[in-house]
Amino acid sequence: MRGSSWSLNRLGAGARAHQGLIWAKGVAAALQRPRQPAAGGSPALPSPVPAVPKAIPRRSGGAPTPRLPRRIVRIVPNPSSRPPRVSSLSALRPSDAPWHARLLHFAPVVTLTKRKDLNMSSEFWLISAPGDKENLQALERMNTVTSKSNLSHNTKFAIPDFKVGTLDSLVGLSDELGKLDTFAENLIKKMAQCVVEVMEDTKGKVYENLLANGVDLTSFVTRFEWDMAKYPAKQPLVVVVDTLAKQLAQIETDLKARTAAYNTLKGNLENLEKKSTGNLFTRTLADIVNKEDFVLDSEYLITLLVIVPKPNYSQWQKRYESLSDMVVPRSTKLIAEDDEGGLFTVTMFRKVINDFKAKAKENKFIVREFFYDEKEIKSEREEMTKLLSEKKQQYGPLLRWLKVNFSEAFIAWIHLKALRVFVESVLRYGLPVNFQAVLLQPHKKATKRLREVLNSVFKHLDEVAAASILDASVDIPGLQLNNQDYFPYVYFHIDLSLLD
Predict the structure, then answer these.
(1) Which of 21, 218, 225, 249 is most buried, by CB atoms within 10 Å?
(2) Within the chain, which residue ranges are assigned CATH 1.20.1460.10?
(3) Which comes out higher in pLDDT, residue 104 or 332?
(4) 237 Cβ neighbours under 8 A, 6+ residues apart
(5) Mean pLDDT of 309-316
C-alpha cells in the first residue's frame, strides 16, 4: 500500500478519526447483517470485517515493519449526567420542585481569583417575590434587565422550608428578628475593629483574618447554605431564633471579658511607652542614665541633670563652672539629646544646689529634677519587660479567638437575614409558603437605577407603595412614613464594609 491514498499515517488527525469511524460503522453493519445459508445447506460464515487500513513504514535498508491497527474510540457524554435546562421560568410548574428549590437563571458564583472586583460594591440586597408563575417571570425579567444593563450580579438565595406556626408568633418574631439583626451587625463590626486594634503593625492584612467558615465574606454570602446541623429547620422558628440569640449573647460576653483584660494591659504598656517617647523635659530617664553618670553615696557632693538648648552648647561649656561656687570643674558630660537640646550632667556641693538652679535658669539652662535610685529604675525596666511579654503572650490566643468567633457571629448574622426574609415573605405574601429569594450585589454608582428597575418590575405587588416610591414628592399629612424603608417586594440590606 506504499504510496496509497489510504495510508492513515499520511492523513491528518481529523481524517484518521473520520476513517476510523467509517471502519466502525462497517463493523456494526457486518455484525447486524442476517446470515444466508450456503448453497450446500451449511450456514455461511459472517461477512468479513472490513480491515483497518495500515500504514507500513519501511526501515532504512530493510523490510517493512507491520503495524497493528489503531482503535478509534469515540467518547459520548452520558446525557443523564447533565443537569436539566429550563428555557424559561414560565416553563416550571409549582409541582416541579418545592418553593425553595425552584430553578432560576441566575449565574452561579465561581471565585476564580481573590482579586476584588473594583466595580462591585460591598453591599448586597436580599429580596424576595412570590413564587407563582407571574412573579417568577418578573424575577426572570429583572435578572435579564440588570444583567444586560450591568446593574448588579444576581444569585439565588436558598432558604429552607421552616415550620410557620401562628400569625401572632410570626409578627412577634418579625420585631425580635429586627432587633437581633441590629445587635448582630454591631457585634461583628465591634469584633472587626478589635482585630484591627490587636493587629497593630499589620492592619493591611485585617481582611485576610475576617473570614466566615474559611472563605471571604463575599463568597460566603453569595454561596450561603443553611446550616441544618447547627440550626435544624425542623425545629419551631422560635427555637431557632432563641439559639441564634443565645449564641450571639455569649460571644458578646466573652468579647467584653477578653478585650477588657487585653486593653488594660495595652493601656499600661502605652503609658510606659509614652514616658519613653516624650522630650527630655517629660520622658522617663530610666533607659538613658547609668550608675556611672552620678556621684552616689556622698555626704557633700551631688550630680544634677541639666537640659541645654542645642544653640547654647558652647555657652554651657564656658559658663557652667562659674554659675555658682563649689561646682566641680570638668564634671559635665552630654549623656543624651533630642531635636531640641541635650541632657548634661554636672557635679557640685549640695549646699549650692538652689543657687546653681537660679543662675542656670537665668541663662536658659533648665535643671531636670531627678535623683538616681537604682531600685526604682530597675523596677521600671522590669515592668516594661513584663508588660511586653504579657502582651505577646495574649496576642496569639486573642487573635485566634477573634477570628473563630467573628466567623461564628457573621454566619449567625446571615442566618438571621435568611430568617427575616422567610418571616417577612410569609407575612406579606401569605400561605401556603411560596416565594423565591434572590441576592443582588449592585455595581458601584448603579444603585439608584437598580432600585428603579426593581420598583418597576415588582410594582404590581403593591401599587400604592410603588406609586409613592416613584413619586418621592408625595407627602401624606399626619402620616410619617419613611418610604425608603418599604418597597413592593421584601427587601433587606447587607453591608460588608465593616471597618468604614
Answers:
(1) 218
(2) 123-260+410-495
(3) 332
(4) 162, 163, 164, 165, 169, 170, 173, 419, 422, 423
(5) 94
Average pLDDT rounded to a whole number, residues 131-157: 93
> Where do the CATH 3.30.70.100 domains begin and end in the chain?
291-371
Residue linked to cell 550630680: 303
Overall pTM > 0.70: no
H or E element at residue 302: strand 301-309
* Residue 200: per-residue pLDDT: 77
User: What is the mean pLDDT of the segment spanning 110-115?
Assistant: 34
Cα 403–chain centre separation: 11
Angle, helix 237-275 to helix 374-429, in steps of 10 degrees: 160
Q: Is 131 exposed, middle or buried (0-12, 13-18, 19+ CB in 10 A)?
A: buried
Closest to 170 (Cα-Cα) out of 362, 420, 346? 420
> Residue 137: helix, strand or coil by DSSP?
helix
Exposure b/e, 358-393, CB count within 10 A at least 16 = b: ebbeeeebbbeeeebeeeebeebeeebeebeebbee
Return d(Cα 320, Cα 310) in angstroms, integer: 15
Superfamily of domain 123-260+410-495: subunit c (vma5p) of the yeast v-atpase, domain 2 (1.20.1460.10)
Calculate the CA 318 to chain-centre distance.
65
User: Which residue blocks in 223-325 are alpha helix, DSSP H?
Assistant: 237-275, 313-319
pLDDT digits 0-9 by tens, 425-476: 999 999 899 999 999 999 988 999 999 999 999 999 987 766 666 554 444 4
Q: What is the DSSP letter of 41?
A: S
The third-level CATH classification (topology) of the domain covering 291-371 is: Alpha-Beta Plaits (3.30.70)
Q: Which residues, listed in sequence order, are joined to residue 190 by a DSSP beta bridge?
A: none
